[in-house]
Amino acid sequence: MSIIGIDASRALSTAPTGTEAYSWHLIQALVPLLCAKGYQVRLYLRGDGSELWQESQGRWSQSQVTLRTLHFPRLWTHVRLSWEMVQAPPDLLFVPAHVLPLLRPRRTLVTVHDLGYRVFPQAHPRLQRWYLELSTRWNVSVASHVLVDSRATRDAVMAAYGISSEKITIVYPGYASDLAPIRDSQQRAGVRQRYGIPGPYILFLGRIQPRKNLVRLIDAFAQIAPTYPQLVLVLAGPQGWLTRPIVDRVQAHGLTRRVLFPGYVATEDKAALISGAEVFAYPSLYEGFGFPVLEAQACGVPLLTSATSSLPEVAGDGALLVDPTDTEAIAAGLCRLLEDRTLREALVARGFANLRRFSWERAARQVQEIIACLAGVGDAL
Questions:
Q1: CA–CA separation, 96 vs 94, rounded Å?
Q2: pLDDT at 355
Q3: 277, 203 Cβ separation under 8 angstroms
Q4: Confidence of residue 121 (pLDDT cuts 50, 70, 90)
Q5: Which of 6, 16, 96, 259 is the most exposed place for a label (fewest CB within 10 A)?
Q6: Torsion over CA of 68, 71, 77 and 81, rounded to 10 degrees?
Q7: Percent of the chain scored above 70 by pLDDT?
Q8: Cα distance from N-terminal residue to C-terminal residue, the chain
Q9: pLDDT score, position 119
Q10: pLDDT exceeds 60 at position 130
C-alpha cells in the first residue's frame, strides 16, 4: 500500500492568508479521497495537529492517517523534514504551500502559487525576492510534477523557468463554501462596531503590502471622498512588508479618520464584514489566484478588481475590471459601482454564477488523480 506524505506545516496558522488557507482546505478535501483509494497518508507538522483531526469530523480513517509532528526551531523543511524523508520516506511527497526539502523521495508534487516577486520585484524586500526566486526555481526543477492555481501562473512559470506543459497542471482552488451573504443588519452592525467602522464603507481584504496596489486605491478614494462624505475606506488584513508608504499616503491626503486599518479579520467575522460593504475593491497589481475575489462574490458584494494577471480569469464576468495602474480608472470604477444599481445587481448575480467553477472537492479530485498517476496506479499525465 503506497504511502503519501503531505507537508501540512502551513495548514495550521492562527492568522491564515491565501497559501495557508489553500493548504488547510485542500488537505481537508484530499485526505478522504486518498483514504478511499487505499493509500496510507502521513501529514508532517511543526506543532500540534489536533485541530486537523477535529475538523476532519470522522471523514479520515485513523488507521490510514498518521500525523507526524517534527519539532525543530529553524530550517525545518531542509533539515528536519529532509531527515524524516531519509529515515522513513513516503512513496510520494506533496508540498501544497512551501518548498520541497533538499532530501526527498523520488516522486514529488508541489504547488507554485505565483511569480509576483518577478513581475513586481520592487514590491518585495530584497532578501524575500532572493529566497522566492531560489525556492521556486528549485521546486519546478526537482518536482516530478507541478501544480499551479491559474492559466496566468502556468504561463508565467513556463516562460520563466522553461519547463514543459506536460510537467505542469492547472488546478483551480476552491473557496470557503460556508461564506454567504449576511442579511442580518444587527450582525453586520456588530462586526462593524467590533472593527471600528463608523458608516458605509468600501472594503479591501488581504495582506497589507505594496503588490496589493493600496497607494493607488487610497489616491482613488481621495478623489471621490468629497462626493461621499460619509464613506470610509477599510483596508483590512494583516500587516505585510514595506507598509510605510501606504500609511504615509493616507496621512498625506489628510484621511486618517476615513481610511481605516482594522488588522486581521477573524474567520467568523469575514462574511458579515464583506456583506456589509458597499463595494469590494481588489485592484491588485498581480495575483497568482486571488481568493478575496471569490469571497466577495460569495457574499454578494459588487466587486472591482484588476484586468491583469489571473484576476480576470478568476473573476469571470462577475466583476468590474480596471487597469490597476490607472488611478482615475479605479476612482471612476468605484463611482460606477456606488451609483449604478443595475450594474451592481448584474455583477452580483454573475458573481454567484461564477462561483460554480470553483470547489475544494473538485480540486482535491484533480490532485488525487495526479497523485495516482505519479504513484503508478493511474492513467499517464
A1: 6
A2: 97
A3: yes
A4: confident
A5: 16
A6: -40
A7: 97
A8: 21
A9: 87
A10: yes
This prediction's pTM: 0.93
pLDDT-based confidence at residue 96 (cuts at 50, 70, 90): very high
Selected from 3.40.50.2000, 3.100.10.10, 3.10.129.10, 3.60.20.10, the CATH number assigned to the domain covering 185-357 reads 3.40.50.2000
Q: List where CATH 3.40.50.2000 sits in the chain.
A: 3-174+359-374, 185-357
pLDDT at 335: 98
User: Which amino acid belongs to residue 69?
Assistant: T
**Hey, what CATH topology would domain 3-174+359-374 get?**
Rossmann fold (3.40.50)
Region 198-222: what's the mean pLDDT?
96
116 with 109: CB under 8 angstroms? no
Instruction: For residues 193-207, give the mean pLDDT.
Output: 96
Contact status, residue 246 vs residue 210, Cβ threshold 8 Å: yes
CA 10, 11, 15, 19 dihedral sign is positive
CA distances to 20, 47, 132, 133, 202 from 127, in Å = 21, 26, 9, 10, 34
Residue type, 312: P
